[in-house]
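Journal club side-thread
Mid-discussion, someone asked how the predicted structure for our own chain would compare to the paper's figures. Pasting it here so we can look after the session.
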Amino acid sequence: MSTGSVVHPQDFRVDETWLVFQLNDVPIRTVQHGDFDCLVLMDAASCYIVAQAMIEATADEPSLLECKQLLKEGRAQSGRLPQTLIIPDELRADIVVREAARLRIQVVRMPEARLTILTREARDGFRRHVQGG
C-alpha cells in the first residue's frame, strides 16, 4: 500500500485486508428506535461487504459489543479474520482499534479521501436504494 495516494482494490488480496467505514451520509431514521448509522466491514480486494452493524447515531463510536459482533459476523462470512483493518481517520473507532489489537489484527489509519475508490460504489448504492437519493 503506497503512502499518500488513493488505494485501489488491486492493491490488496482477498480476505487479507478489510475496511471499516460508515455507509450512510445522513442518519437512518426509524420511528420506534431513533436514528442510526450503518457501519460496514468490507474486503478491500473484492469490495464485498462481509458485515454490517446499525449503530445509534448519537453514539460517539461503536460499543465493544457492537465491535465484537461486527468482527464475528465478518469472520463467519469470510471464514477468517483479516491480517489488516483499515479505518478512516475521520471515523471515531478507538474501541474497534483495541478489539482489532486484541485479535492480533494490524490497524492502519488513513484519510477517507484515500479510500473513495473502495467505498464509492457501496455508498452510492446505499444512497440510491435506502436513502432515496
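Post-session note: The longest strand covers residues 34-43.
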